[in-house]
Design brief:
Keywords: Dioxygenase, Flavoprotein, FMN, Oxidoreductase. One of its GO terms (molecular function) is nitronate monooxygenase activity. The protein contains 14 helices and 11 strands. The protein has 339 residues and is of the alpha/beta class. The protein folds into 2 domains: 231 residues, Aldolase class I (TIM Barrel); 79 residues, no CATH class. The chain has an 8-stranded parallel barrel, surrounded by 7 helices. The chain has a 3-stranded antiparallel sheet with strand order 7-11-10, with no helix packed on it. The chain is globular, with a radius of gyration of 19 Å. The two termini are 18 Å apart. The chain binds flavin mononucleotide. Flavin mononucleotide binds next to strand 9 and helix 9.
Length: 339
């Protein structure tokens, strides 16, 4: 018997789309979402997604093979649209018969959606505006993730609750839409499902799962943090566009602001060109997440985290987190009480 009948009924379309027991995706997190966490999520009935990030095609190939060895359940691969080897990465996914490819980080370049679909996989995209969402769905994307500014990592300017009100009534009848950003408990998940979402995507809540390889000090920083500690980076100069990143405030976030001022000053004195200035800003952050996740440098590294971080209190197996979310949702929908 299904222990979560009301939630499962609302998730039916999302589960069918993903091929899972529950329509709960663990959003790709660079350095965190590798074979161990991805397989644990999928084995727990959710949908794990490998974060390709800046991996080369060979590294992605090895990561997919290793993940397949740890689970026979469906999982996806998240590719960053501006990766210089995007066509090769798509080919690697096709070679492994990956069922779902998530395109993140910008508008999918021409031909990428078609290339993924030609290999038989489904394409999941992000869209910051309703107009762009409609365009992407019209031109072949199979599902959409809307992600609010409560989320960890790179963020847009609008909150999840507002995006949900704008997008779900307009799209959810015809399309599969997943809601992400700020979901820490099952009650919130139930709310978005009732509004028409086919499923949800969480990152922060899963980053410290027992199976996550994140450094123990990275996890400790999450357990100690409150919602208000997960702040968005600020852009200090209009000429230097910086996509905001939500992360726990530390020396690294302060230094990032100082670095922007320094580069803006050099730009004022016309000592470097704009492109070089922007590159310096990007390079500054490159590797910062790795320093925190892999090396445990929680002072200078980037502790990307969403506002739901205050609800992350201890290590728990991924399957238990998923089961808790389902129980909380079911209770909220008037079914069985959550434990
Ligand atoms: C540590 C961390 C790293 C992330 N890295 C990526 C990434 O590489 N690519 C991506 O598309 N999203 C990334 N995200 C966003 C997540 O996939 C997910 O959409 C987000 O965490 C959901 O919001 P939540 O944090 O409020 O649960 C990252 C989030 C975190 C917390």
């Amino acid at each position: 018997m299904n222990a979560f009948p009301k939630t499962s009924a609302l998730m039916a379309r999302g589960c069918e789309f993903l091929g899972t027991e529950y329509a709960i995706m663990c959003g790709a997190m660079s350095w965190v979402s590798e074979r161990n966490l991805v397989s644990a999520i999928s084995n727990g009935g959710g949908f794990g997604v490998i974060a390709c990030g800046a991996m080369t095609p060979d590294l992605l190939d090895a990561e997919i093979a290793a993940t397949k060895a740890m689970t026979d359940k469906p999982f996806g691969v998240n590719l960053i649209t501006m990766h210089p080897d995007l066509p090769d990465l798509i080919a690697v996914c096709a070679g492994h018969d990956v069922g779902h490819v998530v395109l993140a980080g910008g508008i999918p370049p021409k031909g990428s959606v078609e290339a993924i679909k030609a290999a038989g996989a489904k394409v999941i995209v992000f869209a910051p505006t309703l107009a762009l969402a409609k365009k992407l769905l019209r031109s072949g994307a199979d599902a959409l993730v809307i992600e609010g500014m409560e989320a960890g990592g790179h963020i847009g300017p609008v909150s999840t609750s507002v995006l949900a009100q704008e997008f779900l009534p307009a799209l959810s009848e015809e399309h599969v839409v997943f809601v992400a950003g700020g979901i820490g408990r099952g009650e919130a998940m139930a709310g978005y499902l009732e509004m028409g979402a086919s499923g949800v995507q969480l990152g922060t809540r899963f980053a410290c799962a027992t199976e996550s390889i994140a450094h123990p000090d990275f996890k400790k920083a999450f357990f100690r943090a409150n919602a208000r500690d997960a702040v968005a980076s600020v852009q200090v100069d209009a000429r230097l566009p910086v996509i905001p990143v939500r992360a726990l405030k530390n020396k690294g976030t302060e230094e990032f602001t100082a670095k922007q001022r320094e580069v803006a000053g050099v730009l004022d004195r016309e000592e470097i060109a704009m492109a070089e200035a922007q590159l310096q800003i990007e390079h500054y952050w490159a590797g910062a997440l790795r320093r925190a996740v892999v090396d445990g440098d929680v002072e200078n590294g980037s502790l990307m985290a969403g506002q739901s971080v205050g609800m992350v209190k201890e290590e728990e197996p991924a399957a238990e987190i998923i089961a808790k979310l389902m129980a909380e949702s079911e209770a909220a929908l008037g079914g069985r009480r959550a434990a």
